[in-house]
């Protein structure tokens, strides 16, 4: 019987508190204090052409972010690298990923010695290339993935700016992290 009353007490306390807070129950002092308060000011009239039920919000990133892109948007807020999203890729005149990043400081493009793709170099070394968090060992950026398959891209020129989960201490260079559609 004691257990039942304890449980009832635990569940009724939040309900009682909510009722007090919502004004459903009143206690003498609280009721008197509330009676002495001035009436709240009327709400401002809605803007012309609106019903007053709308709320305008300016967003800089999608409201529904796919799970694999959450890290991209979190890291983009840190501003430690260069971040290119799908909208920027669509606006770019580049036909390959290397052409999209060619104007970033520290990026140099050159003909690749072992394939027909362009070699990307960050301060003289080959950057690590990651596609959907999987490292592409030895691949040039353009050989790893086509521009049309990319949703977002992170570019870290200096090795010290590369997020820890995408670093390789044996190859101290920057990294390009690509996220597919």
UniProtKB/TrEMBL annotation:
Domain TonB-dependent receptor plug: residue ranges: 84-161
The family note in this entry says: Belongs to the TonB-dependent receptor family.
Q: Name it.
A: TonB-dependent receptor plug domain-containing protein
Q: Which SUPFAM superfamilies match?
A: Porins
**InterPro entries, per database record:** Plug_dom (IPR012910), Plug_dom_sf (IPR037066), TonB-dep_rcpt-like (IPR039426)
Pull one GO CC term from this UniProt entry.
cell outer membrane
Pfam family membership, one: Plug
Give the range the annotation lists for the signal sequence: 1-35
Task: Give compartment(s).
Answer: Cell outer membrane
Q: What is the lineage of its organism?
A: Bacteria, Pseudomonadati, Gemmatimonadota, Gemmatimonadia, Gemmatimonadales
Keyword Transmembrane helix part of the UniProt annotation:
no
On whether Transmembrane is a keyword of this UniProt record, the answer is: yes
Natural source organism:
Roseisolibacter agri
Q: How does it sit in the membrane?
A: Multi-pass membrane protein
Which keywords does the record carry? Cell outer membrane, Membrane, Signal, Transmembrane, Transmembrane beta strand, Transport
Top-level taxonomic group: Bacteria
Q: Where does this protein chiefly localize?
A: membrane
């Amino acid at each position: 019987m004691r257990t039942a009353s304890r449980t009832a007490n635990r569940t009724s306390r939040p309900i009682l508190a909510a009722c007090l807070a919502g004004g459903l129950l009143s206690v003498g002092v609280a009721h008197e204090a509330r009676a002495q308060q001035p009436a709240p000011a009327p709400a401002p009239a809605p803007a012309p052409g609106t019903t007053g039920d709308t709320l305008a919000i300016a967003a800089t990133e999608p409201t529904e972010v796919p799970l694999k892109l959450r890290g991209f948007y979190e890291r983009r807020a840190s501003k430690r690298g260069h971040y290119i999203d799908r909208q920027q890729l669509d606006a770019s005149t580049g036909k390959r990923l290397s052409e999209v990043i060619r104007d970033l400081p520290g990026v140099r493009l050159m003909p690749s010695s072992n394939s027909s793709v362009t070699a990307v170099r960050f301060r003289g070394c080959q950057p690590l290339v990651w596609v959907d968090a999987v490292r592409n060992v030895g691949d040039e950026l353009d050989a790893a993935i086509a521009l049309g398959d990319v949703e977002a891209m992170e570019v870290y020129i200096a090795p010290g700016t590369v997020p820890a989960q995408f670093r390789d201490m044996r190859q101290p260079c920057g990294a390009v992290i690509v996220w597919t559609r």
